């Protein structure tokens, strides 16, 4: 017998009043409730909206909602009651249901993004077991359409603005808001830098901030300001007025990630797919933005040969329009700073993977200036890889230059606990293991460095990658490849996975990266087939040596090796490199 019960009644004044008289806990007990657009009479959906809340006096809270214009269209109230509930439990369950509903995608979540709580409390694990039972009951009642694993593997969940932040993420968001509002009050522009390694949640911070600031800008005096909310103070009088007429946007350089975020924004009140832009969109815009948040800012372009003649002309036209002359030293970062009063740049210079990316010295200068101006916010906590914070450093040292002669003494693969880190001598065995992990957990894919030509781009009957008699094809789509139907049978490139999570990543280190006993890690330029990844910059008179190219290829493999949440499998093409790396794997 479940210790909780879920009351389901029509969301109307009469029904709420009658319900309130049935039990004292309806007016004096911590509860969690869900309001949605389902009709309790017909069972039909009258609205695609949902709202989740918690209250000590559910009946009084419902009367407030019934007087609110933005809730009156909702049809059904479900109240979760449990004699064991307290305030901490209710805040946690409220957070859980909001995140699950946003990830499920069947409803638009009407909640503000004022700080989802995920603090620790007594017997939390015990209550968390109950949360899954509550979810199952709500799913049986039509509130959810997918299972928890299906939701947690979806982009809607992973890229949702409704997140419970880590301590350093919460501190960063609060500090960023304080600095941003200080600069707006003073009428001065600002450049804020958020810096973090793979998996520290830079994209989460960007999306979270955009939703939070948009909610503050559009908020009225709240009907029930919850002082327990992490960012409630920013919804108080004075802050929304500072954001009057706000023009805000999110710049995402990578096409696939940009398209995925647009899908999330389409289902999120207060956000719009139009807010998600390329640097070209910003440069060509006639709007002077109040704030631009730039995700993966290290992937912005400097002046270089673009993928098409049209984009080459756009680069010239935008630079000329913004600066009065075609200044070849100007980058897309310069466009963004010219077209906005404030910028929040989310970056990691070690994830730059092409010569056209803004140069590391420019990024380093940005970081140094932000530190001097107290506008630099580092992220430390590892949100993706379950191996812990040291894993990224371990991978980067493993691929370091000069190549380490032994496993770094500060780290050990055994220190990563249950994280499934393995090297394979057979590509077929690694493929089979990835398929097994995908059947068990989903989101398990093969990914590789760009060490084989893309034959199937023009001939779908061909294969691209041949290793020891086993054949593979590159990703058949560049947009949302990970979730595409064919992806389990294909191999993804850096351009389809940067910025995304996998449960298990099967990484193929191709013949573009080799090991020389005297020189350490070296590259085989002829085995690297990303034309834009090794192209000299004739426009700016820059040429890229093998040393330069080694930096990009090392960065690519470091990104690929930090995608897996639960495990990373590795196959190394070059025998000498395989033996050199073997001690790094259990």
From TrEMBL:
Classification via Pfam families: SLFN-g3_helicase (PF09848)
Boundaries of every Schlafen group 3-like DNA/RNA helicase domain copy: 191-574
Transmembrane segments: none
InterPro entries assigned: P-loop_NTPase (IPR027417), SLFN_3-like_DNA/RNA_helicase (IPR018647)
Name of this protein: DUF2075 family protein
